[in-house]
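Exercise 7b. Backbone tokens:
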């Protein structure tokens, strides 16, 4: 079966994959970005302050670094898949709604509708996978922190926002550049003024 062969080959070459020029052009056609950078507030709990301010913060522990790198590569691959799917959806939608193109019969119109619905399902699954990967990356970093478990749980529960790993709500838990610990839940939530 062709599908099984293609998936098998892609699976075996996952760590060495480099998209060709056409795939990169299609993928770059939308705004879905790469894995968000780790916020310095969290990074400073694990790495020295000068490293925490960098754009490419690396886990100090080898095993965690390998896991983090794999999560980032997977996130970026799923995001690229989402961008390509989005572009294909726009192309199919344009084909579906162009009255000047060749006359469409009912079967062709049904095929286009089914294709658009399939791409919608793919987009939904890509979004869910991106969220799970971002949560997994949060866990990799929080597991290395000296924070009490209650604080880690509070930080794991922060809402996911596009372009952020922890997001602006993280600042509600911060005092200076370190996360505040204490209280029954492990974190002291700062009141907004």
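Sequence design result:
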């Amino acid at each position: 079966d062709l599908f099984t062969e293609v998936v098998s080959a892609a699976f075996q070459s996952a760590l060495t994959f480099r998209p060709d020029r056409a795939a990169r052009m299609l993928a770059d056609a939308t705004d879905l970005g790469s894995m968000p950078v780790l916020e310095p507030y969290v990074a400073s709990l694990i790495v020295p302050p000068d490293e925490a301010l960098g754009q490419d913060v690396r886990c100090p522990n080898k095993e965690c670094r390998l896991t983090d790198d794999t999560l980032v590569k997977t996130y970026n691959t799923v995001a690229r898949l989402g961008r390509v799917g989005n572009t294909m959806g726009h192309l199919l939608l344009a084909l579906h709604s162009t009255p000047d193109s060749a006359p469409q019969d009912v079967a062709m119109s049904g095929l286009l509708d089914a294709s658009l619905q399939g791409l919608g399902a793919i987009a939904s699954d890509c979004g869910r996978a991106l969220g799970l990967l971002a949560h997994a990356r949060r866990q990799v970093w929080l597991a290395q922190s000296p924070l009490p478990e209650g604080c880690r749980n509070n930080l794991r529960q922060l809402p996911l926002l596009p372009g952020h790993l922890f997001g602006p709500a993280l600042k509600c838990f911060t005092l200076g550049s370190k996360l505040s610990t204490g209280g029954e839940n492990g974190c002291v939530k700062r009141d907004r003024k």
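Instructor comment: Residues 106-144 form the longest helix (39 residues). Residues 96 and 104 are 9 Å apart (CA to CA).
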